[in-house]
Design goal:
mainly alpha; Arc Repressor Mutant, subunit A; Tetracycline Repressor, domain 2
Length: 220
């Protein structure tokens, strides 16, 4: 696609959305680390200098995309958590929440990859205003997620938000180890004993989430 210069706020908004949609499609093909501003601008059909009129950096694009994908996921998560049985004990409901969260996050590898890159990469090379907007969106999303979890585990109380933050961060951290490079796969194949700690994202997330929940639930 090619664009003429945007002349109105509506056109600017359309350009920004086209950039976000293209970046999203790229992330379905490649990891966050492989997304470059040059390739993004080529696919969008804008010169790199023109791209910078809409987003100040690659990281700014990906932060906005992470906030958008998180909001979309949280709408789906609310529906997925409906399977939690309110008549079960706190520990049983915690296990059900852990099952849903681990399955849901593990199925969204792009979102986990974005959270894995957030602190060390994406929040760098961006202006104060971009970070401010991102943090406001992040806090709003976190409050929504905590509300979904607290609905099924009211025992968490004020601990719900820190639990949700930890779950997202662990999803990001663990996802980095679930797609080994070819050299590592070759080592595992030639010497299976070295693959003893190879990570399955859903299983690792479930263990982390249930451990966190059990530690935060009040003792009966």
């Amino acid at each position: 696609m090619t664009f003429q210069r945007a002349r109105s706020e509506e056109q600017r908004a359309a350009r920004r959305q086209a950039i976000l949609d293209t970046a999203s499609a790229m992330l379905d093909e490649m990891p966050v680390a492989a997304v470059t501003l040059n390739e993004l601008s080529r696919r969008v059909g804008l010169a790199k200098t023109a791209m910078l009129r809409y987003f100040e950096s690659r990281e700014a694009v990906l932060l906005d995309l992470m906030d958008d994908r998180t909001a979309t996921w949280l709408t789906e998560l609310e529906q997925e958590l409906a399977v939690v049985d309110p008549d079960r004990s706190g520990e049983e409901r915690a296990e059900q929440v852990a099952d849903v969260l681990s399955r849901s996050l593990a199925a969204r590898t792009v979102l986990c990859d974005l959270y894995g890159a957030q602190g060390g990469v994406l929040e760098h090379n961006v202006s104060v205003e971009v970070v401010r907007r991102h943090k406001r969106a992040s806090l709003a999303n976190l409050a929504v997620m905590a509300g979904h979890v607290r609905k099924h585990l009211p025992e968490l109380g004020d601990h719900a938000e820190i639990f949700c933050l930890n779950a997202l961060l662990m999803g990001g951290a663990l996802s980095a180890y679930t797609s080994p490079p070819p050299s590592l796969l070759a080592v595992y194949e030639s010497e299976p004993a070295l693959a003893v700690h190879q990570i399955d994202l859903r299983s690792a997330l479930r263990l982390t989430i249930i451990t966190s929940l059990v530690g935060l639930l009040p003792r009966s």
